[in-house]
Amino acid sequence: MLSEAFVSVLSARRADYNAQFLAARRAAPELDEESFKVFLATSVEPLVSAVAALDPTAVVEVVDTAYSVGLELLSQRLAGPRAHSRALDNGFQQLFPLLARFIARAPEAVLPRLCNALHQLATVPGVRPDEWCSALARLAPAVQSVEELLGLGQVLAWLAGLAHYRSSALALCRSLPSPLVLNALGVPGAALQATLLRLEQDPWFVPSAPGLGFRLVGSVGSFRGFGGAFLAPPQVTRVGQELFVVSGDDAWLLALDAFGCTLHRARPEDLVGASFDVQNGNVALEPTRVMGFGKTLPLRDTGPLTSAVGNANTVLFTTAHSYAVAVVALEGSP
Amino acid sequence: MAIKGLFKRLSASPTNPGKPAAARAFDVADLYRGPVADRQAAVDPQGLPLDEKLRQAYFWIVNTAIISPHYDIEYNDAPPATFTLGDSKSQLTLPTAQSYSSFVLLPLLTFATRRKCLFIGGPGRGKTASAILMGVLAGYSVRDVKRAMQHGQPQMTIADLLGNPLPSDLVNAKSMDDIRIAWRKWLSQRVKIIDEYNRIPTRTQSALLTVMGDNYAELLDHIYECPESAWYFTANDDQGGGTYQVIEALRDRIDVVVQALAFNSRFLHELLLRVEENARPEELVPRQVIFTETEIDQLGEEIRAVALPPEVRRRLEFFSSQFEFCEVAAHQFEYKTKDTVRLSGVDWLTVTGQDTGRDRLKDLGCQTKNGLSVRALMTLIHYAKAMAYFRGSPLVGLDDVRQVLPFVLHDKLTPDPDAPFFEAPGNAPLRADRIGWLRRLFDESAAEYDRLNLDREDPVARLSEQFQLGLTGITESEVRSRLSRIETLIAELARGKKLYGHLYDDVLVLKYLHHRYTNYLRWVATQ
Question: Which chain A residues touch B24 with a CB distance below 8 Å?
Fold first, then answer.
């Protein structure tokens, strides 16, 4: 059931919208009229109702933007009943109404970007889009402007698992209001500069749990047949401080920290000068345990070690009976 | 609204994904890039590199504005699949790297380098429409571009082209300085379009030549300085079929020639859409691909900064050295050129008939009636740099030269249709296919360069490099040693007996070096 505000805009701009739909379908014959109707009724409607309640004068522009964004998304089967994932529909239905005051203020600046962010969060393996949505919804009431909202979204995306954005997100933290950043990091009462400094020095530092230290973080990747990235048993290596995984003819750069891990295709030239050693001499690896910093971490026995490598903060290793790369976080300086 | 959505769409993803990144850098700003076009970023494309903007413009034109499914500028980063079709055993290649349509790309490179492009082809093939698009890319409205376009016609006078003296001033003026001129508005535009230029009377062509060549217009002792501009000419027939013969100097100032290829009937649905939607792409050019004057200036600077590596330059030198040499043209070495024959007015067939010593099939120089001018070579360098820039490369590659060369030399290198090469089996179509012939000429030159192993063994280049280091502090004995090396090298070259274009250039360089060292030796003796 469409709201009165939505129906009035659709009726008033019917000819334009119909023509837009036809033009989009010429470019993407897969675009289905019924699916698009469902998308408008179930996904766009909650946003339009929220905007109408907040600022009726913004409804036309919001519907215009949502309509054209919807055409782009459904043309690529990224939203609507025939989409491969529900992430964008969930965003429209649950998150965007909560951000209605920002979308109403600048729909063209906000809506496409939020959709792109959600798409990226939903398609990178291991990332937590739900966590991003709930954090953004929780912190949005304290946000003053569209720019702040978009900046907060970027910081939260890093914290939701897009580890490769760590450096630039940390730089962004310095330009956002301190209370907002500290709330995003889960330490509302902490000192921002000291926290950021520690985060910059230690990728395994978690502000809300500072004492975690030397630990087995988990594993990365798995056999491609089970939805993972690796076609052959992987091996690890490093070039300077960058860590790489090589599997068959393929290689990946690993971006990893306390909040997540992402794999990025590496080029052959990225691996020039690769070394295969554990940089930190305090760490000793055995098939069933890792020792270092006065602790012993037990490991599940998955066969003899096949490769091990470590930079200043992290040790990676692989074993004969697993397609996963095990990750050990080293003790950072307090 | 619908048409806006359809025709104003730009590529959201990078247009040159294969471009090698200098270093991997992850930017959290990328979070907001993805399958949905960022309308805000599109309105304010600050920070978008100009080469990317140029590519955006190219892809908008080929995907939306001009229906040109002809990817005749082929690049490969892996061996391409090729197929042989038809009785004539025509080769169809499926390129493996990003390839381009010359009909769109060359005019766009002309726009970026502010040079001169001639569109040729039958009526109604989009020549004028393409030229208008280039005007719109420079920020002019379609109306302004159309009004400024000069339409060649047999009654076109110099006044029609340049402007008129004010009638009241003509009556009252005491001197020429008192006469004010109402200059034509098109002279001030940064994109100049001359439609059907071969219909302009010869006298008016001369006035046009001054504007083209020297960038100013002159009328009654008054001068109008024109801004740097990109020029577009159209002609239905490039072989003198217009109302007037185009004067040679004017033709020579045209930098590239692009042919409008035939419409592919499989794309009729695109035409249908335009008819039904009453769409005129030139009126829907997205703001993001419109260049400001400053941006066009910057484009030119960035293109000039693209480096031409010595190994590519050397191959270009080798190619250009093939054509000017004509052994039977003169006795004196320096005058053994085709230009000597041309200036003398001696019949070409008489000259070629005397040239019996060499293998005229193998010698590339025998395929042409002329050599390459300095202007042609400079134009070639400009376009090769523009091509590399467009592809996102800081260096000109041999492929870049190979791809732009046929369009630059289209009207510059005149084939000799009576040459044995064109009589050889399978080569007859190359008499009509100027682009194919020039590309093959370059390929054969490159193959000969490889055969002679000039990348590794080029003693003339070594001697030139040695000379380039300067003469300061060189001792008399060293100079004598170098002179001896030059003489030995000339003697070695003479031992081969046959003289080809590249050897002719080498011998003249050796003579030049010998003379410079001889002069230096005389100076050293006086110290």
Answer: 253, 264, 270
Cα separation, B202 vs B229, whole angstroms: 23
pLDDT digits 0-9 by tens, A278-316: 877 788 888 788 888 888 888 887 788 899 999 989 999
Q: Which two tokens stand for residue B400?
A: 């870049």
Please state the length of chain A: 334
Tokens of A257: 């920290």
| Cα A130 to Cα A160: distance, rounded to the nearest angstrom | 9
* Test mutation, A17, A26, A114, A118, chain B, max B CBs within 10 A: A26
The burial of B308, by beta-carbon neighbours within 10 Å (0-12 exposed, 13-18 middle, 19 or more buried), is given as middle
Residues of A in contact with B36 (CB under 8 A): 69, 72-73, 112, 115-116, 119
Chain B within 8 Å of A173 (Cβ-Cβ)? no
Cα distance from N-terminal residue to C-terminal residue, chain A: 57
B240 pLDDT more than 60: no
- Whether the CB of B311 is below 8 Å from some CB of chain A: the reply is no
Angle at alpha carbon of residue B238, lines to B402 and B243, rounded to 5°: 165
Q: How confident is the model at residue B238 (pLDDT cuts 50, 70, 90)?
A: low
Query: Which of A223-227, B100-104, B518-522 shows the lowest per-residue confidence on average (mean pLDDT)?
Result: A223-227
Mutate to test the interface with A, among B10, B24, B31 (most CBs of A within 10 A): B31
B27 contact residues in A (CB cutoff 8 A): 165, 168
Q: Check B35 against A158: CB less than 8 A apart.
A: no
CA atoms within 13 A on the CB side of A171: 7
Question: What's the gap in Å between the CA of B480 and the closest CA on chain A?
Answer: 48
Instruction: Check if A329 contacts B (Cβ < 8 Å).
Output: no
Of A112, A153, A172, the CB nearest to B36: A112
Under a CB-based contact definition with an 8 Å cutoff, are residues B436 and B430 in contact?
Answer: yes
Task: Locate A27 and state its tokens.
Answer: 């470019």
Interface of A with B in 235-264 (CB under 8 A): 253, 255, 264
**Cβ-nearest to A158 among B3, B28, B39:** B28
Lowest mean pLDDT among A274-283, B36-45, B448-457: B36-45
Calpha distance B69→B150 (Å, rounded): 29
Q: Please give the structure tokens belonging to residue B301.
A: 């600077």
Phi (first) and psi of residue B279, to 5 degrees: -95, 135
CA distances for A256 relative to A154, A326, B392, angstroms: 17, 12, 31
pLDDT tens-digit profile of B258-275?
A: 998 888 888 887 778 777
Q: Which pLDDT value is given to residue A331?
A: 77
- Count A/B contacts: CB-CB distance under 8 Å: 95
Global pTM value: 0.67
Residue B444 in this model has a pLDDT that exceeds 50: yes
Contact A77, A84 (CB under 8 A): yes
Burial bucket for residue B350 (CB in 10 Å: 0-12, 13-18, 19+)? exposed
Residue B42 has pLDDT above 80, yes or no: no
Interface test with B, best of A84, A113, A132 (most B CBs within 10 A): A113
